[in-house]
Amino acid sequence: MAGTENSPANERRSRWLVAGGMLGAFLASSCCIVPLVLISLGVSGAWIGQLTALEPYKPLFLLVAIGFLAAGFWDVYFRKTSVCADGSYCARLQSSVVKQVALWSGALVVLAALTIDVWAPLFY
Q: Measured between alpha carbons, how far is 34 from 106 in angstroms, rounded to an integer?
């Protein structure tokens, strides 16, 4: 069955979806969460204030992140499982666990970016 085998192209697409979700989540949080975390860790500098210049792009970053995360979740949880060759990376459990952890981490960062107006004042 050629259609059910996991091809390198499918594995590459899956990796891009997860990476896109993580990048989108980081970009969505770059204007507000990243400066808060850096200041909490004791990192300071005038350049941190420049991250707020990304605030107008936050809705676009969130939209991209949610799109990539939704596609990534669909790919990991709802796509029909493929047959993997024995010994290949996709046949290992770690492959799936790494993708799941990355997707859930990205989803938490996006959720934090969406709700920052609610919980950020608690830190001031």
A: 14
Question: What is the pTM assigned to this prediction?
Answer: 0.69
How many C-beta atoms surround the C-beta of residue 72 within 10 A?
A: 25
Dump pLDDT digits (tens) for 26-67. 888 777 777 777 777 877 777 777 777 778 888 888 888 899
pLDDT, residue 87, reads 66
Burial per residue of 34-57, b for 16 or more beta-carbon CB atoms within 10 angstroms, e otherwise? bbbeeeeeeeeeeeeeebeebeee
What is d(CA 113, CA 12) in angstroms, rounded to the nearest whole number? 28
Token pair of 103 as six digits = 């997707």
Strand partners, 5: 83
The three-state (H, E, C) secondary structure of 66-91, written as one string? HHHHHHHHHHHHHCCCCECCCCCHHH
What is the spatial distance between Cα 18 and Cα 106, in angstroms, rounded to a whole number?
A: 9
